[in-house]
Design goal:
Helix 8 (about 215-235) packs parallel to helix 9 (about 265-275), helix 8 runs parallel beside helix 11 (about 315-330) and helix 9 packs parallel to helix 10. An 8-stranded parallel β-sheet has the order 2-1-5-10-9-6-7-8, sandwiched between helices. It has a two-stranded antiparallel ribbon with strand order 3-4. It has helices at about 5, 30-35, 55, 60-75, 90-110, 140-145, 165-170, 215-235, 265-275, 290-305, 315-330; strands at about 10, 45, 80, 85, 115, 155-160, 175-185, 205-210, 240-245, 280-285. The longest helix is centred in the first third of the chain and has 20 residues, at about 90-110. Helices cover about 35% and strands about 15% of the residues. It is built from 11 helices and 10 strands.
Length: about 325
């Protein structure tokens, strides 16, 4: 694949995602309004369609999908599926379009271009038959299952503050998907321990790196360079999807990590080089004022050449975690 194709990028951004909106909630439509001004002018938009029901049903219980559509249609201003997760009358339509946008982003990456899908509601907490954690439909899982009809292996890297329990469970028993998650430990949804590594033929294809609150770029860089990059290289995926939750930023009101906007540039470059294929990024969380600047650095990484520089020593706790993961997953 040529360098020119690898440094081209498209974006998905659509007003339909505003149909899912409740302003008092942190996951509201102003998130995307703020990010949109940071999308470079030379990045063209990609059209997409809502996900067909057959694609959704590869990940979700058909009865759950039918129920979700019905309760959204019956909602007035807002309803609550759990204490964290709201719906409006337009939420189902927005969620189906979000899944379709994720599919389009992955398909564009398979055609040779990076693509970022700025979608909402997010998806990585959504389970087979349950909405949770602001998520209704698991966008990344739907897109990965669709792509597996065309290719053999998919890698997913989830850098959101929270563990992507729904995505992990969707692929826990298969060796065709490598799921790598780095997340804040001891926080919602209280899953994603380093000992969760897969089951059956999927044993070893789930890698969880739970980091202590307050971790910064030295810790993330160490996990990426020592665990994720060699694992992706060994797996040799046909596509790499990023669950891109920027709630690891230092100013995010829901998180306790210390990542700066510029830190997303080396992390993104590392993933692109590890996979050797264009990336498909799908928005997950991220609620702080510097998310737009972080998005600009992601675009910079995808559309220009640059290096990564070792940022320093991680904490002893992170070093211990990495040593454990290397032994568990037989990494050099």
């Amino acid at each position: 694949m040529s360098l020119i194709r690898l440094t081209r990028c498209r974006a998905i951004f659509d007003p339909i995602f505003a149909e899912h909106n409740y302003p008092p909630h942190p996951e509201n439509t102003t998130r995307l309004a703020e990010v949109s001004s940071w999308i470079p002018e030379n990045v063209s938009r990609l059209d997409f369609c809502p996900a067909p029901i057959r694609d959704l049903e590869r990940v979700h219980d058909p009865s759950y999908l039918a129920w979700l559509e019905q309760v959204c249609a019956a909602t007035g201003i807002v309803s609550w599926l759990d204490p964290d997760t709201y719906i409006t009358r337009g939420s189902y339509d927005a969620a189906v379009h979000a899944a379709g946008a994720a599919i389009a982003a992955v398909e564009q990456s398979l055609r040779g271009e990076h693509c970022i899908a700025f979608v909402r509601p997010p998806g990585h907490h959504a389970e087979y038959n349950r909405a949770m954690g602001f998520c209704l439909i698991n966008n990344v899982a739907v897109a990965a299952q669709k792509a597996l009809m065309q290719v053999d292996r998919i890698a997913i890297v989830d850098w959101d503050l929270h563990h992507g329990n729904g995505t992990q469970h969707a692929f826990y028993g298969t060796d065709r998907v490598l799921y790598c998650s780095v997340h804040q430990e001891h926080t919602f949804p209280y899953s994603g321990s380093a000992t969760e590594t897969g089951a059956g033929s999927g044993r070893g294809y789930t890698l969880n790196a739970p980091l202590a609150a307050g971790s910064g770029i030295t810790d993330y860089y160490h996990v990426f360079s020592e665990i994720f990059v060699p694992s992706i290289g060994r797996f040799s995926p046909d596509a790499l999807i990023v669950s891109a939750g920027q709630d690891i930023l230092f100013d995010d009101p829901l998180g306790s990590m210390r990542i700066c906007p510029r830190d997303f540039e080396p992390l993104t470059r590392m993933l692109a080089r590890a996979a050797g294929v264009p990336l498909a990024l799908v928005l997950e969380g991220g609620y702080g004022p510097s998310q737009g600047a972080a998005v600009r650095h992601i675009f910079t990484a995808l559309t220009s050449e640059g290096g990564e520089h070792e940022p320093g020593l991680p904490s002893e706790r992170t070093q211990d975690l990495v040593r454990y993961l290397k032994a568990e997953h037989r990494l050099p």
